[in-house]
Amino acid sequence: MLKTILVLIFVLCGVYLAPVNFKEMGDENLISDVDVIEDSIKEDLSESPTRVKRFNAKKHPYLRWPNKTVPYWINMTFYTSEHVQQIEKAMREIENVTCLKFVGRTYQHDYVTFTGNTKRCVSQVGRNGGQQYIRLMPTTVETNCFRLGSIMHELVHTLGFYHTHIGTNRDDHIKILWENIDPSRQNDFKVFLKSDEVDDFGLGYDFDSILQYHSKAFSANGKPTIVVKDPNIKPNRMGQRKSLSRGDVLRIRKFYDCDDEPNI
Ligand SMILES: *[C@@H]1O[C@H](CO)[C@@H](O)[C@H](O)[C@H]1NC(C)=O
Ligand SMILES: *[C@@H]1O[C@H](CO)[C@@H](O)[C@H](O)[C@H]1NC(C)=O
Ligand SMILES: *[C@@H]1O[C@H](CO)[C@@H](O)[C@H](O)[C@H]1NC(C)=O
Ligand SMILES: [Zn+2]
So where does Zn(2+) get bound (predicted)? Predict the structure, then answer.
């Protein structure tokens, strides 16, 4: 009997701690400049292997980086010191307005590897367990994946956040024009979180988020794929990759309890 209970506890813990491989988030950043070429990334968004509470970020405690710290390692096979500086600059920008720290990996089990064997900019969402990736195609700094804002965008995915336009409240604020979307990218516009898995922190829909696609993202025909419902909101607000929006900062700070424990 005791043995059974012990095995059961072990199994439960195992399930709880097992690495959860969520889908990597591909990006729209390259569409205007380069053909988007798929890596060997599973694109099926319709079913995530585990359903856990999420915000636009995930609520599951294991998926949040512990100690407000994200260990990382950069595979220098692909990058120059300018690339490294740009990656670290993006980290400093996020650290500056939140309580997060990005630290070089030493012994940590869970960490992010930056690698360049891709033609895209891609990140996994939240902590997945073990090694996980941010893939940034090595380009001239300040272009494509190496724009500062593009790296920040990927880092915010890594902290646990999804694209704004797949939030469950999106249909109140935007309309998706499916007929204009490149058929191979339609999955990127599907809402696959359920409303009880998401919390917008009462901040409403954030058109200015660094995680919001621009209005013609993945267009097959040059026409908009995302239109704003409120005529007072300018569509070109969407898709900025300059800095975190006020909402981005507030969401990260809430998700990581930045204001609860100021000195930790
Ligand atoms: C938590 O993070 C801080 C700052 O990065 C670090 O100094 C400290 O050693 C970490 N603590 C643990 C338990 O990992
Ligand atoms: C760095 O990337 C190269 C090329 O993909 C790969 O062969 C190598 O194993 C990577 N290094 C580590 C330590 O993962
Ligand atoms: C950090 O934030 C302050 C205040 O918001 C700002 O003046 C400064 O330029 C920021 N520094 C960096 C490196 O982002
Ligand atoms: Zn993205």
Answer: 153, 157, 163
Q: pLDDT tens digits for 89-106?
A: 999 999 999 999 999 999
Q: What is the CATH number of the domain that holds 183?
A: 3.40.390.10
Give the active site residues: 154
Q: Is 24 helix (H, G, I), strand (E, B) or coil?
A: strand
Sequence ranges of the binding site for Zn(2+): 153, 157, 163
103 within ligand 1 shell (Cβ under 6 A): yes
The CB of 8 under 6 Å from ligand 1? The reply is no
Which of helix, strand or coil describes residue 202?
coil
Q: Is 75 in the pocket of ligand 2 (CB under 6 A)?
A: yes
Type of residue found at 173: H
State how far the Cα of 146 lies from the Cα of 1, in Å rounded to an integer.
57
Residues 112-171: tens digit of each pLDDT: 999 998 888 999 888 888 899 999 999 999 999 999 999 999 999 999 888 899 888 899
Query: Has this prediction a pTM greater than 0.90?
Result: no
Please report which ligand is nearest the Cα atom of 65.
1
Does residue 263 form part of some domain? Answer: no
**Which residue ranges in the chain fall short of pLDDT 70?**
1-62, 196-199, 261-264
E strands, the chain, where?
Answer: 24-25, 69-74, 101-104, 111-115, 121-124, 131-136, 174-176, 226-228
Give the domain extent around 82: 20-38+51-255
